[in-house]
Design a protein that fits this description.
CATH topology of the largest domain: Aminopeptidase
Number of helices: 11
Catalytic activity: Hydrolysis of dipeptides, preferentially hydrophobic dipeptides including prolyl amino acids
Cofactor: Zn(2+); Co(2+)
Shape: elongated
Keywords: Cobalt, Dipeptidase, Hydrolase, Metal-binding, Metalloprotease, Protease, Zinc
CATH class of the largest domain: Alpha Beta
Number of strands: 25
Largest sheet: 9 strands, antiparallel
Number of domains: 2
Structural class: alpha+beta
Distance between the termini: 40 Å
Radius of gyration: 24 Å
CATH architecture of the largest domain: 3-Layer(aba) Sandwich
Pfam family, one: M20_dimer
Protein name: Cytosol non-specific dipeptidase
Helix content: 25-40%
């Protein structure tokens, strides 16, 4: 076990999480971790199955005397979102995650931690090897590529799971039982712009926007954090009112489901106007200060002249068209829930933008608690792109998870929670995309619930998980499994 975790309790959970930190597990790169877990399970006599899309299913018989009790599935995903602060040398395909313990939290200071969903996976693995745990027939479903497409849950063949109840361990707020989640769909925008020779009196400039907090595009979308792509487009549009701006290159964001923290652009402008840049940047930052002083205190913008010569760029009209599209396209919360106080119903996140050699691309993540609203909102983004002469299409749709307040599993979990912690748990839906919607589509008989520890800053560097809440999750999970095993405890 990593020295960062060796004194933490519950020790079995943190030991597994240390392994997950040590083995790189970017989306679509989970095979090494999966192979390790197969060997681990086989050494303990636990049945292992890898399905046709690469999901790992681990099965353990019920405790003696409880073989006839309906089985339960513990579910999480193997992959993690990979983000690092600028200047951090970290290869997510080779390097272990460096985590430290500070003030009751485990934190990765310069990268994402992978507590989403590594802690959930660790809880499930610990349950498989807990020696004195009373439990029904137990399955652990560990899916692949949840973060960039939900391919694992999407490809799960109907009838694969033997259990009748499923506990998803992928939510991030302790003290809440989640019984519903948003569905989602991606929108991809593409356009090819012609390049034109630059006049001889033009010079290349690099604008870089940085210092934003970023975050999860579902859980954090309502917090009013800045989107680096949108802010950079705002800056470039403002600059174009002072001088002729011609785009050469544009990059921002790294994942459709993460709020962009950084973006940069290379553009050309008349050399005679370069002297205006410093004052322009200062005034722009002064203008942003009232809007973002509290939520984005480290917001930074800088402009640098480039020594290398640039010979071609988009013309002014084409540059304005792309910038106007980025500035005007919907981003953030579009609708609040009518049924759940304080919960976002529908949103979009402009997660990634690229422009290179005239090829423009943009990727959006649209989420909604209502599948039809997600589809319609995505259609609106496609139509908006078409108004600017850009090609766009929807892709990767997945269903939400419809709440079932009368769930037997929910009633049992509420009873157990009150017994263990002396107070009721809150009931909630989440504006993130859990895999429960897809699992319900392939296994409609499943009674499902979700819970997890306190995780903050998922999908962004500085992600952290609270140690005490992990221990509480472990206590709850063991008590729920024991209650499910005992017929007299079932409701």
């Amino acid at each position: 076990m990593s020295s960062s975790f060796e004194n933490l309790q519950p020790r079995p959970v943190w030991a597994h999480f240390a392994t997950l930190c040590a083995i790189p597990r970017a989306s679509l790169r989970e095979a090494t971790l999966r192979d390790h877990l197969i060997r681990w399970a086989q050494e303990r006599g636990i049945e292992t199955v890898v399905d046709s899309v690469g999901n790992l299913i681990l099965r353990k018989p019920a405790s003696p005397g409880y073989e006839s009790v309906p089985g339960v599935v513990l579910q999480g995903h193997l992959d993690m979102v990979c983000q690092a602060n600028r200047g951090t040398e970290h290869d997510f395909e080779r390097d272990a995650i460096h985590a430290v313990v500070r003030d009751g939290w485990v934190i990765a200071e310069q990268t994402t931690l992978g507590a989403d969903n590594g802690i959930g996976v660790a809880l499930a693995l610990a349950a498989l090897e807990e020696p004195d745990l009373l439990h029904p027939p137990l399955e652990v479903l560990l899916t692949i590529n949840e973060e960039s497409g939900m391919d694992g849950a999407r490809g799960l063949v109907p009838g694969t799971l033997q259990g009748t109840q499923l506990i998803n361990l992928d939510t991030e707020e302790w003290g809440h039982f989640y019984l519903g989640c948003a569905g989602g769909v991606d929108v991809e925008v593409h356009h090819a712009s012609p390049l034109h020779d630059l006049p001889s009196a033009y010079i290349a400039v690099r604008l870089e926007l940085s210092g934003l907090r970023g975050g999860h595009s579902g859980i954090d979308i309502h917090l009013g954090r800045g989107n680096a792509i949108k802010l950079l487009a705002e800056a470039l549009s403002a600059l174009s009112k002072l001088t002729d701006v011609r785009l050469i290159e544009l990059r921002g964001g790294t994942a459709r489901n993460a709020i962009p923290r950084e973006a940069f652009a290379v553009c050309a402008m008349p050399a005679v106007d370069v002297a205006k840049l410093d004052e322009f940047v200062r005034q722009l930052l002064d203008g942003w200060q009232p809007r973002y002083a509290e939520v984005e205190p480290a917001l930074a913008l800088r402009a640098d002249l480039l020594d290398s010569s640039r010979e071609a760029a988009l013309d002014a009209q084409e540059s304005h068209r792309l910038l106007n599209f980025i500035e005007s396209v919907a981003n953030g919360v579009a609708r609040r829930s009518d049924d759940f106080l304080g919960v976002t119903d529908t949103s979009s996140n402009l997660g990634v933008v690229t422009l290179e050699q005239g090829a423009f691309g943009a990727t959006f993540k649209v989420r909604s608690l209502h599948d039809l609203r997600a589809s319609r909102f995505a259609d609106e983004l496609v139509e908006h792109a078409a108004q600017f002469g850009l090609q766009a299409r929807k892709d990767g749709a997945y269903p939400g998870w419809t709440p079932n307040p009368s769930s037997d599993l929910l009633a049992l979990c509420q009873k157990v929670y009150s017994t263990e912690f002396g107070q009721p748990a809150s009931l909630q839906v989440i504006h993130a995309g859990l895999e429960c919607g897809l699992l319900a589509a392939s296994h409609p008989h499943l009674d499902m619930i979700s819970f997890g520890p306190d995780i903050r800053g998922a999908h962004a560097p500085g992600e952290r998980v609270e140690i005490a809440s992990v221990a509480q999750c472990w206590t709850l999970l063991k008590a729920v499994l024991q209650a499910l095993a005992k017929p007299e405890a079932r409701l």
